[in-house]
Amino acid sequence: MYGAASITKTIVVDQKGHGNFKSIQAAINSIPDGNKKWIQIHVKQGIYREKVNIPMEKSFIVLQGEGVRKTSIEWNDYGDTMTCATFRVFANDFVARDISFVVRTDLLNLNQENSFKQPRGGPYRVAEAALVGGDRNSFYRCSFIGYQDTLCDYHGRHLFSDCWIEGAVDYIFGFAQSLYKNCVLNSIGSGWLTANAKSNKNSPTGFVFKFCTIRASGKTYLGRPWNEWSTVVFYKTYMPANIVPEGWARWGSSDQRKTTYVEEGCRGPGSSKSRRISWLKKLSGEQLSHFTDDKFIGPDDWLSQQP
Fold this sequence. Notes:
10-stranded parallel β-sheet, 2 helices, 12-stranded parallel β-sheet, 307 residues, mainly beta
């Protein structure tokens, strides 16, 4: 059961001036450093054209929108992995609900005044919708929209529940320990869905996709290893015909046999494992349960301690 904690204060953000602040960043800045009580920032409907950063000093924030089609944060930066994201969170104990994080590119046919232009045919540039770098961060019914490197799932333990994540090239990537439940992974061009960067054998990190749905408009690989211990599990996930028969791609000269790539109980025309790469792993029931249980992202049951 999620959500036992209580909200102690609500701050309202409204572009029309009917709240406490007109910008999301101003609301975040108003929360004192070292905060230990859950504060909700309620963001009224609208497109908020700003870069938003939640520094590590500002924990216990709930960012609440009014629905992914009504409330969005949008910007157009690109280039540097650590600074370009439209939305960045480095604080522990953070929750987001019902809001979209968007990086605008012309590849999405969104040539607005704050859009940069990706080069046709590549090479594409890092352009993140969000960077998630705190511990005990969770996202419910959120959308992440981009093309390359949409979601930098950077560091910490994270839950993504009922989210929409869209891109084409390595669009879920990073070092984090994350569980994706009931999410839609929407590949809008040929490329790689994941680029997990687990860097050593003993790290507990990895990406687990449980009860998810993949959509793909081009030839899509499930992932490729950013580091040689790369770990990604797809469990009871729908895979369309656009999934490349090999499933997974090599990257560089690292030892692919050290990766942990798992597909179990998946369905759909792209889920056949008859032509998968030879280094696809088969886990025992106990090993699989380790990844698919909520405790994969923490035996301390931190989800029940969030609002």
